[in-house]
Amino acid sequence: MPLVPTGDLVEQARAAGCAVAAFNVITLEHAEGIALGAESAGLPVILQLSENALRFHGFPHALAAASAAVARNSKSDISLHLDHVTDMSLMQMAPELDVSSVMYDGSHFGYAENVRNTREAVEWGRKHGIWIEAELGEVGGKDGAHAPGVRTDPGEALEFVKATGVAALAVAVGSSHAMTSKSAALDHELIRALSSIVPVPLVLHGSSGVPDEELTLAARSGMVKINIGTALNIAYTTATRLFLDGNPSVVDPRKYLTLSRDAIASTVEHSLTTLASGATSISV
Asked: Which of 83, 195, 197, 217 has the most CB atoms around it within 10 Å of its CB?
């Protein structure tokens, strides 16, 4: 199927009263597993390529091209998204990478500079048909506002959206990046307050550490795009480790990568159906 714009998937989820999941891609098996999970669930999905993952592969075209090929050969509606991009030159490669959206990360700047740079990213995006997500303060920072106790102020969030014109806003409501246990407690009252005042879709980063029932309630309360990464890595690595521990003589990586890819697919299917469970209607 053709690639679907991220903005379309987000608006479909918003209209249905649910959330669309965006999963981080690190290897080809991640992309394949995500697509397989989406097909099993019968639901759309976003493939996210982080700046760090692209750098890991040496140059952005390799992972982006592989992910685009997987998406086009899938039966599900899939979009490609650049996540946590700090390099403006990488952001500007989005059209040639078949990417329809970018999360510009200005969290390491002070408020004024973040607004200025984010507005520049949004203006560029409008000229090139690229949907821009952003964050306020250090919302997406691994040691920033997704740390325990840090929360987004609704008034400041509204001011930031008005000043920048972003299409979506990542907010801090109790989740944290790189959690390996599902123990995070979200501030649902804050989510509802943000949803009522911020005119653009809200995005939840660090969702791997959030229990299923918390994610379902967050989607019902106003979260529209839910980012999941570490949960896939846990599934992938656990399956690989279990196989190799039981089969120490095996050297063909296909033997265990098949299981690891399937583990990702199962995790994706479960996450997608969880997020869709509170929807009033589903557009696929």
From this structure: 83
Using alpha carbons, select from 235, 243, 222 the residue that is nearest to residue 182. Answer: 235
The closest alpha carbon to 83, from 73, 97, 69, 70, belongs to: 97
CA distance 258 to 252: 11
CB 200 within 8 A of CB 223: no
- What is the per-residue DSSP string for 91-109? HTTGGGGT--EEEE--TTS
State the chain's mean pLDDT as an integer.
88
**How deeply is 232 buried, as exposed, middle or buried, from its count of CB atoms within 10 A (0-12, 13-18, 19+)?**
buried
Is the model's pTM score more than 0.85? yes
Supply the pLDDT for residue 209: 64
Q: Is 8 designated active site?
A: no
Q: Of 83, 105, 187, 262, which is the active-site residue?
A: 83
d(CA 182, CA 179): 7
- Report the greatest alpha carbon distance in the chain: 59
Residue 59 has pLDDT above 50, yes or no: yes
How many whole angstroms separate alpha carbon 182 and alpha carbon 35? 24
Q: How many CB atoms lie within 10 A of CB 189?
A: 10
**pLDDT tens, 154-210?**
999 999 999 999 999 998 886 555 444 454 567 788 888 999 999 999 999 876 667
